[in-house]
Amino acid sequence: MNLRTLSQFRFQIARQLNLWHCCFPTCTIQKSDCAADRIRSFSREISAAQVSDGRVLKPILILMATRNGGRFISDQLESIARQSHADWQLWVSDDSSTDATLEIVGTFAARRPQGQIKVLRGPGIGATENFRSLLRRADLAGRCLAFCDQDDVWDADHLARGLQALTDVPNPLAVYGCRMRVCDAALQELHLSPRPARPLGFRNALVQNMLSGNTMLMTPAAAQLLQEAEAEAGSIPIHDWWAYQLVTGAGGTAILDEQPGLLYRQHGANVIGLKRGIRTVPGRLARHLRGKHREWALQNSAALAASSARLTPENRERLRAFTEALSAPLPGKLASLRRSGVYYQSPQARAAFWLSVAIGGF
């Protein structure tokens, strides 16, 4: 039974309750009442469906890392409140904000059901470590997990669409992301984020992050995998890139929805922005020449090696070949990269990468 069918059952339950209270507003429903019997029957069908179908995914834990987000965070919080999928809990970890961020979150929490919003103190050493601290402390309890930025605006069906996509995948180890409507600070749309030209997977994840964390939703199995592996990982450059690598490396499925699911706000204080097209080549090449991509690759490889027992045998071999390439001279580097099978999605990224390899930047 899929989520749509379950939703229909829940609608029928609500309809029975509404009909009963409209007809008998002062009466208490007794065990022998026909309406109550119908409601219990529907509830049993829902419970049976949830037990018999291990892929029914409902509760979601949302993790949001904040730092001086007072200018935009209200828009994001209100977009979470408007989600058509209402079974969520939000954990906010704040890195010592000096603006109104915590006050805004507190006001929002006061309007929500008790316990739906939880506020924590962050480690104060950057967004990646703040998200890692949330993951480390998260009470997963078999729930799906979503990452959330403080300055975006989610479409009302963002969570529902992600859940449906994950439910439709036969693999219980799966992570979902979607394209984004890239906007300016005033939410005026600029363009869509790129669509993938090739399938998502571990060979792509080793060199490129195609799943933006602010769109990520994952199955309980994927969330548990990340939480366990987080304790093994050393330094990682970007939490969502590591998540994409680890889930696909362990044999999981990565989904990138071609339909956008949120407004991705670009402003002067973005931790990570989004550029596209041929204009990205000089910046990419400059980072390669400075050794930044190689530094990130070394950190990612070390983190994945620490969790190598969680990877499939085939992907362990790919990781080994990729790691060897990072320290090999050019002939050996080229051979190891070919053995690893890594690939980029766009011609611009591919050109910048192979040029940097040829001139010794990677």
Itemize the secondary structure elements and their pairings:
Layout: H1 3-23, H2 34-52, E1 60-66, H3 73-81, E2 88-94, H4 101-111, E3 117-121, H5 127-137, E4 144-148, E5 153-154, H6 158-168, E6 174-178, E7 181-183, E8 189-192, H7 202-205, E9 217-218, H8 220-230, H9 239-249, E10 253-257, E11 262-265, H10 280-289, H11 292-306, H12 313-327, H13 330-340, H14 347-358
Parallel strand pairs: 1-2, 1-4, 2-3, 6-10, 7-11
Antiparallel strand pairs: 4-9, 5-11, 6-9, 7-8
Helix pairs in contact: 1-2, 3-4, 10-14, 11-12, 12-13
Key phrases:
362 residues, alpha/beta, 7-stranded mixed sheet, 4-stranded mixed sheet, 14 helices, 14% strand, globular, disordered N terminus
* Number of separate helices: 14
Q: N-to-C SSE series?
A: HHEHEHEHEEHEEEHEHHEEHHHHH
Strand-residue proportion:
5-15%
Strand order of the largest sheet: 3-2-1-4-9-6-10
Instruction: Count every beta strand, where a strand is a DSSP E run of 2 or more residues.
Output: 11
- Percent range of helical residues: 40-55%
Question: Structural class, please?
Answer: alpha/beta
Provide the gyration radius in Å: 23 Å
The largest pleated sheet is described as:
7 strands, mixed
Which overall shape is indicated by the principal axes computed on the Cα atoms? Answer: globular
Give the termini separation.
49 Å
Poorly predicted runs of 5 or more residues:
1-54
Kindly report the average pLDDT value. Answer: 85
